[in-house]
Amino acid sequence: MPQYEPVLLARIHRPDSATIDSYRADGGYQRLGDILRMAPADVTNVVKDSALRGRGGAGFPCGLKWTFLPKDHPGPIYLCINADESEPGTFNNRILMEDDPHQVIEGIILSAFATRASTAYIYLRYEYPQSWHRLQAAIDEAYAAGYLGRNIRGTAFSLDIYLHRGAAAYICGEETGLIESLEGKRAWPRIKPPFPAIEGLFHKPTVVNTIETMACVAQIARRGVEWFKSIGVPADPANPRDPGSYGPKLYCLSGHVEKPGCYEAPLGITARELIDHFGGGVWKGRKAKAVIPGGISMGLMTQSELDTPLDFAGPGRVGCLGLGTAAVVVIDDQTSIVDFLHNSCRFFAHESCGQCTPCREGTSWSLRMLERIKAGKGRLRDLDLLLEIGNTMGMMPGSTICGLADGAAWPIKNAIKKFRGEFEDYIKRTNPSGWMVTDPVPALQIVGAH
Amino acid sequence: MRVLTEELRQRICAEFPKYPTRRAVTLPALHIVHDALRAVSTEAIEDIAELLELHPSDVHDTMTFYNFFRDERHPLGRDRVWVCRSISCMLRGGEELLEELSGKYGVLPGQTTADGRMTLEFAECLGACEGAPCLLVNDECHRDMDLSSATRLIDGLVSG
Amino acid sequence: MPVVIVDGQEIEIGADERLNCIEAARRAGKEIPHYCWHPGLSVVASCRMCLIETGQRDAATGKISMVPKLVPGCQTPVKDGTVIVTESPLVKESRARVEEALLIDHPIDCPLCDKAGECILQDYHFEHGQAERRADLHAFTSRKRDVGPTVTLFVDRCIMCTRCVRFTREISGTSELMVTSRGAKEEIDVFPGHPLDNKLSGNVVDLCPVGALGDKDFLYQQRVWFLKRESNVCGGCSAGCSISTEHNQDAVYRLKPRENPHVNKWWICDDGRYGWHHLHDSSRILEASRRLAAPADRDRGSLTPAVETIEWADVVTKLRDDLKAAGRLAVAVSPMLTVEEAWMLCAVARSIDPEAWLAPGFVPVTGSDESFPGGFTIRAEKCPNRRGVEEVLALYGAGGRSWNDLVAHVAAGHADAAWITGGYPGPWIDTATAESFAGLRQLAVQDLFDSPLMRLASWRLPASGFAERAGTWVNVAHRAQSFGQAIRPPAGVWPEGRLFWNMLGRRGLYDPVSVRQQIAGSSAALAALAGEMPATGVDLRIHQLA
Fold first, then answer.
1. Shortest Cα distance from A193 to chain C (angstroms)?
2. Across the interface, do B57 and C175 touch by the CB < 8 Å criterion?
3. Option in A165, A254, A256 nearest B27 (CB)
4. In this complex, do B82 and A165 lie within 8 Å of one another by their Cβ atoms?
């Protein structure tokens, strides 16, 4: 593995890394005045040329997203920063917000300038009180220093940043769910079109980006496109639609490793390298049974798939949903895969927003099936039913509005396809008399009188 | 009936300039009331709705979506303890920790101790997976918890 | 013209039409099942029942490229070359999965559910669902709660289409209904102390595709498969909403809105919806009777003047004779009458007294017009046919008059006899006004209920209610709508049309259509009434302009 010096996380271990003085001493905000005198379209082009892909999960090219905004819109245009980092296993944005908030704020200022947004809302999940305090303090410092507010650095550009706290709902990480939540409604994702770039927050053109993307923008502005494109996995020349996987990425490593943590590495590092090099190996000298490549919704890689590069395309090649948030969770060989799937199904049943029928009912049904299997009343037939639910629920087959159901489906599909033997053994062992029963077990009774 | 104090009203109104619509202040207003009163009662919802120029059902609709705000029948205790049960914490004993704390303090997740001191809740990923299992006690996250350290922490709160 | 291809069948749509796939497919005779979509509400595309396959035919090459996944028909607009596939195996499989999902937590209490028989969940399950229940769930609950004075919510039957919630937010603008909680725990509810009590509340019951919202007025009164339906027009106000009267054995059980884009779209107000109970009120006047002493000669000391019941066949002749004998006749043509009845009444009056003084009957007005954000308006004028009666009176040279003019005319002693038609569902005249008619030699009053005027009458005649008539009404916007008779009046009551028809000496059964054709042929202003009337009616003014 080539040596790599962290950039996004370079400052997090400095004392007072969250203060503006320390950030400026390390070169922060230095070029801001110059860039704010460029044409916004040129700044967008820089980001576009860098081939930066959004770090939130879907990996959509960031600069391209900005160009979808209508030209010559009278405004206002809004920038929403998605800090509702709720994907289980993910905490990279928290590290950035807590330990280097000014890097994030500089990225927001640059992105708002490029998109001609005059207001940026940071939608911050409630579970991050520390981030709330640190970010608010940093925003206050930035106002005091003239990096925010009216006529920033003597230019015509003005920007306000407001922190908006969520209330513990995973679906607010979906960009239109976030917008609905910000507007004061239940966070039911919107149907598209219209896409937020055309009609988003408060019916105005809106860009939604995540915290780590903002940090990347700040570093691209400072270090240039060449630096960014020198890192990561280049686009596949055989595939004209592949935008490549450039730049550094924050990988969150957790679960059964010796040294869990957030580590910065070039995109394309393999799961095995991450676990062995950064994580100090699987804990207690055990072996990995499975690894989640990028948050629980991405599915599972088996032990034999650990050499898959964790770039935007890699996990898809082994049947996972994608890179997701690059939150790598290691599951050791003494953990039951039934427990994993139960945990996953419980999460998605709890977090389904309840709007689309297949997701609302599918997540709830799969959880109840897993609860029954776990309780020793499983049937082999349940595995096929679960697979069918997994295959028919989600944005990809077209049966839901947003991707939450895909995220719920992939762990089911991966776990049952890749570990079917273990499920069958579990069911046969725990339900020796009933595992071949194929009839459902309804005992309908009326509760409550009419 | 007005249950929001003038101070709470002013804090809610102070949020208005940040947003082009009053409705967008729903979540900030709910947080302000919830933090101060440890629950958002029916009357409080009506007060918020009046300030935001909404129907109370609009506020209630939004509020209940999040499964986060407490109504007057289930107010929060003085301290709120969230135990993470999501995958990274579960792999390192989060579910057992939640169960043990539940048994030790005699409350199911979501319930408040009889003395009103502590509300125990499960959380879906607190985002401190590098320190699994973790707890969020009010505004403070505690990592690498086990039963004894968590008990010490909570006992400290309860006696304090 | 843009062409849309529905299951291989090419259909043309209008160049400016904005249709979604459900509407386009309907033109081709293909029904795409759906729950959450309703043409009158915003699109949420959340039930996922209308998922179909779509594609685009290249105009130049004719090559069709399909979208690689299912899309909701409600959310997908069609344009020239849009390809819609509504019956592929993938589509059918998806519908079966949605049906299965919706039934996982549904109580399936159809035998006790009022919606059974007209339940879309039930219909779709037979058409698109599967026979086997694979869900492994043991118990269900069937809870109900009150959400307002007119509506009961059966919580567990709900499939969360949110039509009702959107209705209160978008059409009535009152926002009483809301969704609580999230995911599979979601429920519809109202906020404590703020029940669903707006004037359009009953529409949420019509919108509910399942048995979750029940109309208290109709709940458990009748199985829907026993009901017969007649297209009617609401007589509650001058808006003239198109309705369907649902009845069995001459009893009305409920009124439902009937879609009419020119009048009420898909809605009616609660006043109209529940405004049929007077038809079955036991205090209705059911007999034609004649007082032996005329009002002018009556003995004010006697308690009850002698009264004789008159058979209808005798009314035809005796009423004519009495009125003719009295002298100068004044007639009030009630705005509750149809155009045909009004026209015949005028003809009858002029045949009794060629100089008969004709004027509109009393026009009830309550408050002022009430409009809702969705465009629906409840009119203050609580009668259905003032415009139609005025048009007819104009034909008889009696235009520009009002009820007050008639009262003044009678009070001034210009009439010896009066014939006052009513048909009002409630009290409408006070004693003081009625006294103006006290000096007449003959007073014929034809109404549903007793009134101070009725008590003075020498001729007491029963009237018929709105569902008991057939004919044409002209609403506040000059739209004429014809309708048939839904139920027969109570035994012994002749509808006004039948009486007038017979008094004109016409043969056979009363035929409102032939009367309408005759009116249309004799008046340019009413020429639009000629021919077959569309179910949504015709605009009299547009015809005049043309």
1. 9
2. yes
3. A165
4. no
| Residue in the structure block whose two tokens are 């905000």 | A29
Tokens (6 digits) for C98: 């949605």
Among A313-322, C121-130, C287-296, C376-385, the least confident range = C287-296
Candidates A364, A398, A443; nearest CB to C69: A398
Contact B120, B101 (CB under 8 A): yes
Q: Which residues in chain A have their CB less than 8 angstroms from residue C109's CB?
A: 446
Sign of the CA dihedral running A421, A423, A426, A427: negative
Contacting residues of A for C139, CB less than 8 Å apart: 443-445, 447
- How do residues B4-25 score in pLDDT, each as one tens digit? 999 999 999 999 999 999 999 9
- Tens of pLDDT, residue by residue over C209-253, are 999 999 999 999 999 999 999 999 999 999 999 999 999 999 999
Question: What is the spatial distance between Cα A98 and Cα A130, in angstroms, rounded to a whole number?
Answer: 7
Cβ within 8 Å, pair B60-C180: yes
Share of chain A above pLDDT 70, in %: 96
Number of A to B CB contacts under 8 A, please give it: 151
Indicate if the pLDDT at residue B54 is higher than 90: yes
Q: Is B58 on the interface with C (CB under 8 A)?
A: yes
Whole-prediction pTM value? 0.95
Record: contact A89-B125, CB cut-off 8 A: yes
Across the interface, which of A188, A364, A385 has its CB nearest the CB of C134? A385
CB-CB neighbors (< 8 A) of B140 in chain A? 129-130
Chain C within 8 Å of A361 (Cβ-Cβ)?
Answer: yes
pLDDT at C93 over 90: yes
Q: Where does the pLDDT of residue A3 fall: very low under 50, low under 70, confident under 90, or very high at 90 and above?
A: confident
Per-residue tokens: B122: 């499960």
Task: Map residue C432 onto helix, strand or coil.
Answer: helix
CA distances from B7 to A27, A239, A330, A432, B63 (A): 42, 61, 49, 64, 21
Q: How sure is the predictor about A447, in pLDDT bands with cuts at 50, 70 and 90? A: very low
**ipTM metric:** 0.96
Query: In this model, does residue C270 exceed pLDDT 80?
Result: yes
> How do residues C97-144 score in pLDDT, each as one tens digit?
999 999 998 988 999 999 999 999 999 999 999 888 888 775 567 899
Instruction: Kindly report, residue by residue over A179-216, the tens digit of the pLDDT.
Output: 999 999 999 999 999 999 999 999 999 999 999 999 99
Q: Across the interface, which of C176, C181, C182 has its CB nearest the CB of B57? A: C176
Chains touching A (at least 3 CB pairs under 8 A) are B, C
pLDDT per residue as tens digits for the range A308-319? 999 999 999 999
Residues of C whose CB is below 8 A from B73: none
Poorest-pLDDT segment among A312-326, A387-401, A431-445, C115-129: A431-445
Q: Do the chains contact at A360 and C93, CB–CB below 8 Å? A: no
- Taking CB atoms and an 8 Å cut-off, how many pairs form between chains A and C? 126
